[in-house]
Structure formats: C-alpha cells, structure tokens
Amino acid sequence: MDRDNLNNVRKLPEGWRWERLGEVSRVVSGSTPATGIDEFWNGDICWITPTDLGKMKGKEIYSSSRFISKIGYDNCGTELIPPGSVVLSSRAPIGHLGIAKVPLCTNQGCKSFIPGEYTDSDFLYYALKISVPLLQSLGSGATFTEVSKSQLETFKIPLPPLPEQKRIAAILNEQMAAADKLYEFASGQLGIIKSLPAALLRQAFGGGL
C-alpha cells in the first residue's frame, strides 16, 4: 500500500483533513554562495545548514554558525524566509527541524516551509516532526539520501482548523518544555551518579571514610 492510500484509510478527527505541504505552505529550497569568494561571506544574513539544525537544543532558530553577505545572497540563488517559517534538513541527514525566529536563508541541504494563512507554524513543526521516519523512507540518492522539494510539496499531513492547530501546539509546547526541563535535571543527576565512585575512592584513600 502506498503512502497516500495508507494516509487515506486512517480515520481523522472530525474537521481534520489530509493536506499537501505545498498547499498549506510554500516550500523553499536553499543554496550556497561560492566558498572561494571572501566578499560573499561574514555578512549579517543568517545562513542555516543541517549541521546548525542538528546542534540546536530547542526548536527556535535565532542564529547560525556562518553568515553570508548581501552580495553573497544576491549571487547564490537562496531565498530569505520570514520568521515563523519551519526549516527541515532534507539531506545529511533528513529530519532536523527548527522554526525561524529571525529572517534567514539556508543551504541546499535544507527545505523551508513558509506557512499559509491557515497554517500555524508550531503545529506545522510538530506535524513534520512526527513524520520524520516516513520522510526518511522517501529519501534517495547515491552519495547521501535526500528528500526532494517536489516530494515535500506533495507530502500529506493531517491538518485541523486553525484554532485547533493553535490549541494543540500550545499544549505540545508546554509539555515539551516540561520534558526538556526533566531531561536536563535527569542528565545533571546522572553526571553526579557517574562521578560518585571516583569521589568515594578519593574520600576512602584520603582518610575521609
């Protein structure tokens, strides 16, 4: 059974519909300025790569590891996307995600989704996030797997009315923030536990027991 048929047999809540990404957002590809031309780089335009997305701890994009100049932007064919756009790494690997909080552009390893009037940015982010395994299965390529712009434009996500999108996204944002805090706490405790044997040995051999 192909993906479209599989999606269609899944029952959605009342008022929800399967929508193609290309119908609820505008899908934008990225590009890279020539790396050998110094004046194309070290400007003030945020330029996101899959590596940048992979290093993020949260979902909000405010900066990048490299910036391009206005002349670099004008000469490479990338497009500046507005805040609220969702950025997906479409290769190397497929699946890193973030939401732009500043105007930015990307390299060719990313695809960006500029939400339409009736699409909430956060809901779109979570809809893509839960779809990552399926998106990865669509990838192809000899050097590395990649999902194309045309594949993404026709990829379907379940979409409720806008007020319901916002309600669900608000709940997920709150729960994800709580989960992140719990993870940070657990990671800190794990660090203490891992250091305990060495601390006990130092105490024992220092006459502290």
What tags apply to this protein structure?
10 strands; 3-stranded mixed beta sheet; 5-stranded mixed beta sheet; 209 residues; 2 domains; alpha+beta; Adenine-n6-DNA-methyltransferase TaqI, Chain A, domain 2
Task: Please outline what is shown here.
The protein is of the alpha+beta class and 209 residues long. It has helices spanning 3-9, 21-24, 50-55, 70-74, 121-130, 132-138, 149-154, 162-205, and strands spanning 17-20, 25-29, 41-48, 60-61, 66-68, 86-90, 94-100, 104-106, 110-115, 156-159. The chain has two domains: 3-160, DNA methylase specificity domains (Adenine-n6-DNA-methyltransferase TaqI, Chain A, domain 2); 161-209.
Task: Tell me what you see in this structure.
- The protein has 209 residues and is α+β, with helices and mostly antiparallel strands.
- The protein folds into two domains: 3-160, DNA methylase specificity domains (Adenine-n6-DNA-methyltransferase TaqI, Chain A, domain 2), CATH 3.90.220; 161-209.
- Helix content is 43%, strand content 22%.
- It is built from eight helices and ten strands.
- It has helices at 3-9, 21-24, 50-55, 70-74, 121-130, 132-138, 149-154, 162-205, and strands at residues 17-20, 25-29, 41-48, 60-61, 66-68, 86-90, 94-100, 104-106, 110-115, 156-159.
- The strands form three sheets. Strands 2-9-6-7-4 form a five-stranded mixed beta sheet. A three-stranded mixed beta sheet has the order 5-3-8. Strands 1-10 form a two-stranded antiparallel ribbon.
- Strand 6 (86-90) and strand 7 form a beta hairpin.
- The longest helix is centred in the last third of the chain and has 44 residues, at 162-205.
- The chain is globular.
- Residues 4-9 have low confidence and may be disordered.
